[in-house]
Amino acid sequence: MTATPSEDPHRVASHSPPLAGESVIEGVAQDDERGPAPSSEPPPLPGEGARGEAVSRLLARFEADYTACGQRRYVIPAEAQALAEAIRRAYQATVGAPAVLRRARVLTEFAASAPVQAHPDDLLLGSQRFADLTAAPDPGALESLGYARTTGHIVHDYEGLLRNGIPGYRQALTVALSQAIAADSRAHLQGFSEALSAFETFLRRHAEVAEDSERASDLRYLLSHPPATFPQALQLLWLGHVFLHAENPCAAISLGRIDQYLWPFLQADLAAKRLTLQEAFELVCAFCLKCCEGDESQNAVLGGVDPHGREATNPLSFLFLEAVRQLRSFQPSLTVRVHPGADPAFLAAACDLAAAGL
Question: Are 3 and 333 a contacting pair, CB within 8 Å?
Fold first, then answer.
């Protein structure tokens, strides 16, 4: 880290989406101009070992995979080969087309062919891994990482993804394509449109394999609506993150200020009693374990101030610190923003995590 229990452990609480046209942000209490005063105590957090049976099983499964593999998973040759085949098919089918359309077709091929699976204990669907783990890395593949250039090291507009959802992006593309624009601009927009359709396919295929009807319902909802609940927002964020790695594998794609853009969803769920803090903690734990499956350089930023300079730490900031502490997970790597008005309890929790080597 750098500085700059539900009744059924297999499921989170029921979370019916709001009515059509109703915003998840509406009705959330706003702070006054002075902003919230830093609290001297953190929110009530799940106790040691209270992460839930499903998360405990997910952690055991991850640790078993890690032991069998004998390493953190940087490169799996079978995955590289599968992506190479998708690129080959896409480029053979688009000879003579603009480069942006050929790259978009790669995502179409990936979305249609990448294996998707669901495990009974999964709280979130989707994985950065879609090939069998190997006990030893391929020396040539590892060596090639040292020569890779101009990829990754980005933070996507995940806040925009959650705000607009697939329908918002589709509407914006439809409007843009209806206007008179230059040929190269039209090709880019057509490429964006195909990539978005590929992402829809990716979500739909995960909905089809979901063993939990609630998760499947959430995924189908996300095909035609922006997320309306914290579980839906976290699921869309995760699948969007996975999909970006399909275009840019091993690419240091980071998560940005995750506690800021996810908090309004959790805040609304807590206020409406759709979710408890314990259930939210289990989802955060599941998210951290998902991040450990692949990319080694996924940074998440916690705390700091809002655009008005007010202290921005919230209960979700604490949940991420606590999840990493209990799981001892190495991803996402955490960065905590520190400022003169930082919440003392949050700063103390962050320092404790750093002192523990996490």
Answer: no
